[in-house]
Amino acid sequence: MLNALGQNKNKEQDYMDPNLNPQLGRRSLLKLGLGASLALSTVGLTASLTGCTSEHAAPQFKVLRESDLPLLAALYPAIIGPHPAFAESSDAIAKASAQLDWTLERTSPFVQKSILDLLGLLSMPVTRGPLTGVWGDMAKASPDQIEAFLLRWRDSRFDMLRQGQKTLTQLLQMSWYALPQSWATTGYPGPPVI
Q1: Residue 61, pLDDT score
Q2: How many domains does the chain have?
Q3: Which of 130, 165, 186, 194 is the 20 to 30 A CA-CA neighbour of 151?
Q4: 4 is a domain residue
Q5: Strand, coil or helix: 182
């Protein structure tokens, strides 16, 4: 029976269906994780089959692809912050990207694939918008937009996003601070000369 507002007055309908419990149980979490993994795998497979991603490294690189470089150029300033080397040298990000490529070249094929999948995920419009909140081209996003998405990922309830944020920040910071251009502002004199 419905009242004037269209609400159900039947007493048996007033209880909450246990299948609609808003808390995420272990089984639901596992299903969600499996579903997310399948969705990401499907998107990655679709991207590779349709030619959205290139499997070949960019010129002068061993691992990083051409499509990764504009993304890295946007990520470095957001992750590193306002470092003087960005203003002093027009090729500061290119050097850091080369250092990142050098590091990735020395990792296992599995790690390389995982990093390239993560960068591909951020490059594809189909996945970038829903996952990051940056609906336009990531290379044209402001550092504030990128910082906001990294904070959302850091504080996410989904482990996959938290791991993605940690991976991006640690890799980019390691590749940046491995270069002499970053040492002066940190007070590091460089490795001892032997």
Answers
A1: 87
A2: 1
A3: 186
A4: no
A5: helix
- Domain of 95 in residue numbering reads as 73-180
Tokens 């920040």 belong to which residue?
Answer: 169
Question: How far, in Å, CA of 42 to CA of 30, rounded?
Answer: 18
Cβ atoms of 123 and 71 closer than 8 Å: yes
* Angle at alpha carbon of residue 189, lines to 79 and 193, rounded to 5°: 125
Where do we find the tokens 């050097």? 95
* Cβ pair 101, 62 in contact under 8 A: yes
What is the C-alpha to C-alpha distance for residues 114 and 99, in angstroms, rounded to an integer?
18
In a domain, 92, yes or no: yes
Q: Does residue 93 lie within any of the structural domains?
A: yes
Strand, coil or helix: what is 30?
helix
Predicted local confidence at residue 24, as pLDDT = 57
Going from the first residue of the chain to its last (194 residues), give the mean pLDDT of each consecutive group of 10, the final group possibly shorter.
51 50 61 64 59 67 91 92 84 94 94 92 85 84 89 91 93 93 84 82
In a domain, 7, yes or no: no
Which residue pairs from 32-39 have beta carbons closer than 8 angstroms and sit at least 24 positions apart in sequence? 33/160, 36/158, 36/160
